[in-house]
């Protein structure tokens, strides 16, 4: 397409009240965006896009220098994708409101169409941390792109575990690409851009705002064939992502958690509402029709050591509740290592947290011992 036409896509993306539906209406009426940008107020109103949208467009025409905006983007080192670009993610075009412009730091690849979102609380438990890391690693070694929102907690852990496993990951921002949030994730964002991409529909200079993140979440869900919520409180933004994924016809998984854990209240309610429980990473691979065998060279660093600790704990656990501190003393390993291994045993259905940091072995996956029933 004519490269000069790209600036009008940028202009419409910056006009208040103009989204995908109204943009399509303008394209249908005027044939191209240059003609729509130059149209009279009366001609714009005749399209039926609404008075507020017309006002927003006229204000954008008054305040924006499109050539200057395009030059600024070019010199930033970032790129802008529009619907007509081959690189624009096809799965995003399937949702009701794809971003008019998608700003990219890094590189998108066709393989990214095989992607899964991992989202969750900003304050995960050791269990949630272990699940996020192990799930992201399993997906990465099977060639699945991991999508998340660069937030603290589950999001950043999923990104980092994917990078550590040599996989591709996409981070979706609720701000401009030059306004990384949270700021301490600047170096992580740079790593992601080098091994995947950081994406945003917000123009350069747009600061993070609470209203931006639910808007961002539809892109997280829209880029992904499935969304997995690892841990989430009852008012977590991760639940918004799950709802958006369901609305888009994508699969939604939730990781079951203890009924005593505040971080699992949202995920447990998702399951009650119809989300698929994720008992192991293999559940996601099966849903995507991927082979369950891990590549020979796909074991993450320390995997053998972690598996050894899990095996040791599985032997130590009995039908009598054992406190985590006792298990730390018995294995002579750090508390964080033991809690992570216990979390994986829970996920595998081999251990059960019965409250108060006490654990028992599971006689059958997903069921409490008869003495505790």
Helix/strand layout:
Layout: H1 6-14, H2 20-30, H3 33-38, H4 41-46, H5 51-63, H6 66-76, E1 79-82, H7 90-93, E2 101-106, E3 115-119, H8 126-141, E4 145-148, H9 154-164, E5 169-172, H10 186-195, E6 197-200, H11 212-222, E7 226-229, H12 237-247, E8 251-254, H13 265-272, E9 276-277, H14 281-287, H15 303-316, E10 322-323, H16 324-331, H17 335-347, E11 351-355, E12 358-361
Parallel strand pairs: 3-4, 3-7, 4-5, 5-6, 7-8, 8-9
Antiparallel strand pairs: 1-2, 2-6, 10-12, 11-12
Helix pairs in contact: 1-6, 8-9, 8-14, 8-17, 9-10, 11-12, 15-17
List keywords for this structure.
373 residues, alpha/beta, nine-stranded mixed β-sheet, three-stranded antiparallel β-sheet, 45% helix, elongated, disordered C terminus
Q: What can you tell me about this protein's structure?
A:
This protein is an alpha/beta fold. It contains 17 helices and 12 strands. The protein has helices spanning 6-14, 20-30, 33-38, 41-46, 51-63, 66-76, 90-93, 126-141, 154-164, 186-195, 212-222, 237-247, 265-272, 281-287, 303-316, 324-331, 335-347; strands at 79-82, 101-106, 115-119, 145-148, 169-172, 197-200, 226-229, 251-254, 276-277, 322-323, 351-355, 358-361. It has a 9-stranded mixed beta sheet with strand order 1-2-6-5-4-3-7-8-9, with helices on both faces. A 3-stranded antiparallel beta sheet has the order 10-12-11. A hairpin with a 2-residue loop joins β11 (351-355) and β12. α8 packs parallel to α9, α8 packs across α17 (335-347) and α11 packs across α12. The radius of gyration is 23 Å and the shape is elongated. The chain starts with 5 loop residues before the first helix and ends in a 12-residue tail after the last strand.
């Amino acid at each position: 397409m004519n490269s000069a036409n790209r600036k009008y896509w940028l202009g419409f993306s910056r006009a208040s009240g103009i989204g995908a539906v109204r943009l399509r209406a303008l394209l249908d009426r005027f044939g191209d965006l240059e003609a729509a940008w130059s149209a009279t107020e009366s001609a714009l109103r005749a399209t039926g896009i609404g008075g507020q949208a017309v006002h927003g467009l006229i204000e954008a025409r008054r305040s924006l220098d499109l050539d200057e905006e395009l030059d600024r983007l070019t010199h930033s080192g970032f790129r802008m994708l529009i619907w007509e670009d081959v690189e624009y993610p096809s799965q995003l075009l399937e949702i009701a409101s794809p971003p008019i412009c998608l700003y990219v730091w890094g590189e998108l690849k066709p393989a990214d169409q095989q992607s899964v979102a991992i989202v969750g609380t900003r304050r995960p438990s050791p269990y949630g941390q272990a699940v996020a890391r192990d799930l992201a690693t399993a997906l990465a070694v099977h060639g699945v792109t991991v999508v998340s929102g660069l937030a603290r907690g589950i999001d950043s852990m999923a990104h980092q575990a994917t990078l550590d496993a040599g996989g591709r990951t996409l981070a979706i921002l609720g701000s401009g690409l030059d306004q990384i949030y949270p700021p301490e994730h600047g170096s992580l964002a740079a790593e992601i851009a080098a091994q995947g991409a950081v994406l945003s529909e917000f123009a350069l200079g747009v600061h993070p705002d609470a209203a931006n993140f639910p808007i961002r979440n539809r892109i997280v869900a829209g880029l992904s064939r499935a969304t997995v919520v690892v841990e989430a409180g009852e008012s977590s933004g991760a639940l918004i992502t799950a709802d958006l994924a369901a609305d888009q016809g994508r699969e939604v998984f939730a990781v079951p958690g203890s009924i005593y854990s505040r971080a699992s209240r949202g995920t447990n309610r998702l399951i009650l509402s119809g989300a698929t429980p994720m008992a192991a990473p293999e559940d996601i691979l099966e849903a995507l029709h991927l082979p369950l065998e891990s590549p020979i060279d796909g074991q993450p660093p320390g995997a053998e050591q972690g598996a050894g600790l899990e095996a040791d704990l599985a032997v130590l656990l009995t039908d009598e509740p054992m406190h985590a501190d006792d298990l730390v003393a018995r294995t002579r390993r750090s508390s964080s290592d033991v809690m992570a291994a216990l979390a994986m045993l829970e996920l595998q259905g081999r251990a059960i947290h019965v409250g108060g940091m006490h654990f028992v072995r599971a006689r059958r996956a997903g069921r409490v011992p008869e003495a505790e029933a």
